[in-house]
């Protein structure tokens, strides 16, 4: 157990208190802060080794970064750090508040964790660690408005030459994009990248902006140029290649999508299933737009990686991807057991969210009418599952496809008018437009013929 009696409280360069053993520890703390907000925290250096125990402040950062993985094994490791530090009885208020918030997070109450870290930010406006953590938790619970409000309020507290400022600009850029303020998001992300060209999160925000504007070819080139020469340790590597595949998908470059799936997305850094989040929805999208493709071998391989998740379910966004995989390979026993476990976890699952899950299940059984109806009434309420707008629009795309297959022009048109998908252009969306137009024309012709027959009688 960490002994805190001989530790002291020192402030960092932004006036934020940290619990450390000696003044020289503050250099390590300052380095770790920059590493955390740039998504490059050195975990090995942050763990106890050879009788040396890292400062409490650094252990808190390690716990936060572990929790950001949003998988059970990492959560358990963070819980052990939290329990050790809490058991040592820290009296410093910021440390106690952070431990409380980490405890909520580890217990699965992400909203309480976010509120706890936000209270730390309110007390210490220069606390880059808590600002970053609030941003990530807002992402995980799908609270884009708070994500923007919090980071917009926090950025002015930092000097332009502070080493974390550019990384906070990247967070701000993403929050702006998720709230539909695309041009401002591009400006902020560009500024972040000018300060830190290696800022993967700012680059990621820029990619989202290009996606939202439907600039697919430009987005694919941008990713290729940025990722050239970067290795498997690049933060968010798989997710960035998912974005590349999405750009190519909407351009109709199916072979490029498949190559990216095999080489960029399934080349993992661990065997854990959460690394396959993007693989699931990319394969799903491929199956929607090119149903003639035989993707069964890919799905079976994904199922093997996701199979253990049934016993490890913890976070709704991950649950959704596991559920899709189980349904797609016909393992409905796994799917039903997972949904039952998810609902048993408590208040996080609304009836609209259950509708989303069941809408995907119905799609895989061929009950397209039920799928379309469920997704049409629920897709606007899907944000609490977390993830980005771009990730969640697989729900809308599935609803459109279900409506078209069930010949429900009214629901298809509702998606057309109120959704996000048709802001894109390119061959794939043109196909959808043509199918929708044909469906509406056929429905109009049938109504006219029915009316004519009624009059003749």
Overview in brief:
With 457 residues, the protein is an all-alpha fold. The protein is built from 23 helices and two strands. A hairpin with a 5-residue loop joins strand 1 and strand 2 (17-20).
The residue fraction in helices comes out at: 55-70%
Structural class: mainly alpha
Q: Which percent range describes the beta-strand content?
A: under 5%
State the order of secondary-structure elements, H for helix, E for strand. Answer: EEHHHHHHHHHHHHHHHHHHHHHHH
Rg from C-alpha positions?
A: 24 Å
Q: Please summarize the sheet with the most strands.
A: 2 strands, antiparallel
Explain how this protein is built.
It contains 23 helices and two strands. With 457 residues, it is mostly helical. The chain has a domain at 1-142: Serine Threonine Protein Phosphatase 5, Tetratricopeptide repeat (Alpha Horseshoe), CATH 1.25.40. Helix 8 (144-154) packs antiparallel against helix 9 and helix 13 (237-250) runs antiparallel to helix 14 (254-265).
Write the layout of secondary structure elements.
Layout: E1 8-11, E2 17-20, H1 25-37, H2 43-46, H3 56-67, H4 72-87, H5 93-106, H6 110-123, H7 128-141, H8 144-154, H9 165-178, H10 182-195, H11 200-212, H12 216-227, H13 237-250, H14 254-265, H15 277-289, H16 296-306, H17 316-328, H18 332-344, H19 351-365, H20 368-378, H21 389-405, H22 409-418, H23 427-456
Antiparallel strand pairs: 1-2
């Amino acid at each position: 157990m960490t002994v805190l009696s001989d530790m002291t409280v020192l402030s960092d360069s932004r006036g934020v208190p940290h619990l450390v053993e000696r003044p020289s520890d503050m250099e390590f703390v300052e380095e770790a802060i920059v590493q955390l907000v740039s998504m490059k925290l050195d975990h090995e250096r942050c763990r106890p080794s050879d009788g040396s125990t890292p400062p409490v402040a650094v252990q808190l950062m390690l716990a936060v970064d572990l929790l950001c993985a949003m998988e059970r094994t990492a959560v358990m490791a963070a819980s052990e750090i939290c329990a050790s530090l809490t058991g040592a009885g820290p009296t410093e208020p910021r440390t106690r508040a952070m431990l409380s918030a980490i405890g909520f997070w580890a217990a699965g109450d992400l909203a309480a964790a976010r509120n706890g870290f936000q209270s730390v930010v309110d007390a210490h406006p220069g606390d880059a660690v808590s600002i970053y953590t609030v941003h990530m938790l807002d992402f995980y619970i799908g609270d884009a408005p708070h994500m923007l409000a919090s980071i917009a309020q926090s950025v002015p507290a930092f000097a332009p030459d502070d080493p974390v400022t550019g990384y906070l600009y990247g967070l701000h850029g993403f929050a702006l994009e998720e709230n539909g303020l695309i041009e401002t998001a591009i400006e902020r992300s560009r500024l972040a990248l000018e300060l830190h060209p290696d800022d993967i999160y700012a680059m990621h925000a820029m990619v989202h902006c290009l996606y939202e504007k439907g600039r697919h070819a430009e987005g694919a080139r941008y990713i290729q140029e940025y990722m050239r020469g970067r290795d498997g340790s690049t933060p968010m590597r798989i997710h960035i290649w998912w974005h590349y595949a999405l750009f190519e998908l909407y351009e109709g470059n199916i072979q490029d999508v498949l190559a990216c799936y095999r080489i960029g997305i399934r080349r993992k850094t661990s065997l854990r299933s959460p690394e396959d989040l993007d693989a699931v929805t990319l394969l799903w999208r491929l199956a929607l737009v090119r149903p003639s493709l035989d993707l069964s071998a890919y799905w079976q391989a994904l199922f093997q990686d996701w199979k253990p998740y049934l016993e490890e379910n913890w976070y709704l966004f991950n649950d959704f991807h596991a559920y899709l995989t189980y349904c797609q390979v016909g393992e409905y026993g796994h799917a039903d057991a997972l949904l039952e476990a998810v609902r048993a976890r408590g208040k996080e699952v609304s009836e609209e969210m259950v509708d989303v899950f069941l809408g995907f299940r119905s799609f895989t059984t061929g009950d397209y009418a039920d799928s379309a109806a469920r997704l049409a009434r629920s897709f606007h309420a899907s944000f609490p599952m977390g993830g980005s707008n771009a990730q969640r629009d697989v729900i809308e795309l599935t609803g459109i496809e279900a409506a078209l297959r069930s010949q429900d022009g009214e629901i298809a048109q509702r998606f057309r008018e109120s959704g996000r998908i048709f802001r894109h252009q390119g061959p794939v969306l043109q196909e959808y437009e043509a199918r929708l137009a044909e469906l509406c024309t056929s429905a109009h012709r049938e109504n006219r013929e029915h009316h004519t027959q009624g009059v003749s009688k």
